[in-house]
Amino acid sequence: MKICKVPLICVILILIISGCNTIILPSETTPTQIAQPSVTPTILSQNSSGEYPWWNGDVFYEVFLRSFYDSNADGIGDLQGLIQKLDYLNDGDPTTSSDLGVSGIWLMPIFPSTSYHGYDVTDYYSINPEYGTMEDFKELLVAAHQRGIRVIIDYVINHTSIEHPWFKAARSDKNSPYRDWYIWADEDPSYLGPWGEDVWHYNFDKSYYYGVFWSGMPDLNFNNTSVNDEFMKITTFWLSEVGVDGFRVDGARHLIEDGKIQANSDATLLWFEEFNARNKYLNPSVMTVGEIWDSNFSAAKYVKEKAFDLVFDFELSESLLEGINGNDGGQITNAIKFNTGLYPYLQKANFLTNHDMNRVMDVFQQDVNKAKLGAFFLLTIPGVPFIYYGEEIGMIGSKPDEDIRKPMQWDSSEYAGFTTSNPWRTINSNYASWNVKTEESDNNSLLNLYRKLIQIRNQNEALRTGQFLNLNTNDKNLVSFLRETDQQRIVILANTGQKDEELKIIFPSGTLESGNYFVNSLIDNVQLNLVTVNSGNEKFEFTPGIKIDPGKFFLLEFIKQ
Fold it and tell me: From its phi and psi, is residue 327 left (phi > 0), alpha (psi between -120 and 50) or beta?
C-alpha cells in the first residue's frame, strides 16, 4: 500500500464519458497536453567521464520519522528529533569520519493521515501534527541543506484516505463536484486487481469505488482536469514555497487504469512524462524517483522516456539477496551486468530492502558477514544507493509491516535511546548489542563498514560515476568488475563462495595501458606489489599470489606510474 507524493502538473487527461452511470475508466480518455518549455535537467556535477546530475554523487537514506528519534517524549519520532540526529547522517564536514556520510534523505509520508504509516493522506498542504509543524519541516530543510543533505519526500497521489474531505464529499453525494475526483461504478465490475485482490469496494449508496491497494485508500481519477489542476497547485507549493529537493513516487505504475489494465498503462507513462517535465520547469534540479515494482523491462521504460529521473531496481535487490544467501556469485554478476545495461547509465536507484520488505538481517538470518557483503555491493555498483534506516546497524524485522518499521536503536539504554517514554512500537529484542553507540566503538562493526564504504565512495569519482566493465575471474563466485574514469581505475572484488579462492583477475585487452601500476587496497589502505602491463593490446592477468577468504571483499585502485 505504498504511495508517494507526486506533483501533478502540466498534463491534463480529459475523460470523455457518455453519462453518469458509466464506469469511469481511463480507456475513454483523450490526453490533452499543456505546452511547456522544453527543459533539460541542470547538470550539477561534471567529471572526466562525462556529465551527470547531482544525484549520481549522492547516497540516500530512507527515514520513517515515526521511528527515527523522539524529541518530546511522546513515544513517536518527529521532525525535531531528525534535526537533532542530522550530524549522525552527515555533519557537513567531509574531512570527518564519525558520521554516516549520506547526502540525501528520503522521508516516508509526512502528511496528516489516519494511519501510522501515512500512506492514506487527509491533507496535502500540511504536516502530520504528530511529527511537528510546517515551521519544523522548513527548519529541517535549512539544517539539512547546511550539511549538504538534500531532502525528498513521499508524494502520495495515486489515492487518498477515505477520510479526506474530497472523498467524504464524493461518497455522500453523487452530485458533488468531488464525485468525479474518484473512480465509480453503479454495479460491481467484479474483476480483481494485479495481485488477485478486490479493487472495487462497496459504498453505502449502493455504488462501487475503485481502490487498487485497499478499501481505505480510494484511487484518484487523473482523467479529471480538476484533479490535475489541484495537484499542479500542490506540487508548486512543495517545490516553490516549501523548497523540497524532489519526490519519491510510490505505487507509480498504478496511477491511471485502462479498463482491466491496472499497471503501466500508456496513460500512466504519458502522465509522468508531463509530470517530470513540469517539475523541471519549476525547478531544473528537482529529482523524481519512481517505485515501479515490476520487471526491469517495464521499469526502465519510465527512465528512458524521462517519466522519472530514477526508478528503484527491484530485480537487482532480489538478485543480490538471493545470490549472497545462496553463495552464488554468478547470479550477482549476471544481475549487475544485465540490469546496468537496461538503463540510461547510472539512472537507477539501488537498494537492499525497504519499508515493505523483511529487513536485510532477517533475510540473511542475522549473518553479519552476509550483511557486510550486501553493503559492499550496494555502495560500489553503478547507480544511486538507498539505505533503509537501521540497515547500517543490523536492525532485524520481518512482516507484519509494523515490525520492519520499528524504532531506531541508538544505544543500549531503556527504549534504545529512541525515546524516554513508551515507544509507539516495541523495541527490537537485540537492541542492547546492535545499536549505534555500541557499534561506533567497534572497528569491525557493520556501522563502521557502512561509514567507511560511503566515505570511500564520496572520495573516489570512479565509484560514483565511473564506467562499468565486468572482469573475468578464475571462479564464478569471485565477483569482479571495474569502475573507471579517465583518471582513475578501481577494481571491485568479492568472494561470495564458501571456500577461499586464489585471486586471479583477467583484464580484457585494451583495458590497461602498458606500463607499471601500483595497486592500493582502499578499504584497508594496504599497497600491494607493483605490477607491470607489457602490452595494452593483450589481455592482462592480475595474479598477486593471495587468497580471498569467503565473504571477504576488496576495492583495488590501479595507479599508473
Answer: left
CA-CA-CA-CA torsion sign (440, 445, 447, 449): positive
Give, in order, the Cα–Cα distances in Å from 293 to each of 263, 305, 379, 502, 553. Answer: 10, 17, 21, 39, 30
Q: Return the half-sphere exposure (C-beta side, CA atoms, 13 A cut-off) of residue 72.
A: 11
Summarised one tens digit per residue, pLDDT across range 484-529 is 999 999 999 999 999 998 888 999 998 999 999 999 999 987 777 7
**Under 8 Å CB-to-CB from 316, ≥6 apart: which residues?**
296, 335, 336, 339, 350, 381
| Cα–Cα separations (whole angstroms), residue 550 to 471, 500, 555 | 19, 5, 16
Question: What is the C-alpha separation between 287 and 310, in angstroms, rounded?
Answer: 8
Task: Give, in degrees to the nearest 5, the angle at Cα 402 between 398 and 406.
Answer: 85
Instruction: Please give the grid coordinates belonging to residue 9.
Output: 502538473
The alpha carbon torsion through 37, 244, 159, 266 (nearest 10 deg) reads 30
291 is catalytic: yes
Q: Determine what percent of the chain is predicted with pLDDT higher than 70.
A: 91
For residue 250, indicate whether it is catalytic. yes
Q: Please pick, among 70, 250, 273, 294, the residue that the annotation labels catalytic.
A: 250
- Report the C-alpha gap between 102 and 79 in whole angstroms: 18
Q: Are 98 and 447 in contact (CB under 8 A)?
A: no
Cell 570511500 locates to 456
What is the rounded CA–CA span in Å between residue 452 and residue 446? 10
Which of 553, 546, 557, 554 has its CA nearest to residue 501?
546
Is residue 288 helix, strand or coil? strand
Beta bridge partners of 386: 60, 351
128 to 26, 66, 203: CA distances (angstroms) = 32, 10, 28
Strands (E), 101-210: 104-107, 150-154, 184-185, 200-202, 208-210
pTM of the model: 0.91
pLDDT digits (tens, 9 = 90+) for 334-372: 999 999 999 999 999 999 999 999 999 999 999 999 999
Give the active site residue among 257, 291, 309, 313.
Answer: 291
Distance, in Å, from the CA atom of 206 to the CA atom of 187, rounded to the nearest integer, reads 8
In angstroms, the CA 481 to CA 115 distance is 44
The rounded distance, in Å, linking the Cα atoms of 519 and 528 is 5
Q: Which pairing describes strands 384-388 and 349-351: parallel, antiparallel, or unpaired?
A: parallel
- Is residue 284 packed enough to be buried (19+ CB in 10 Å), middle (13-18) or exposed (0-12)? middle
The three cell numbers locating residue 177: 463536484
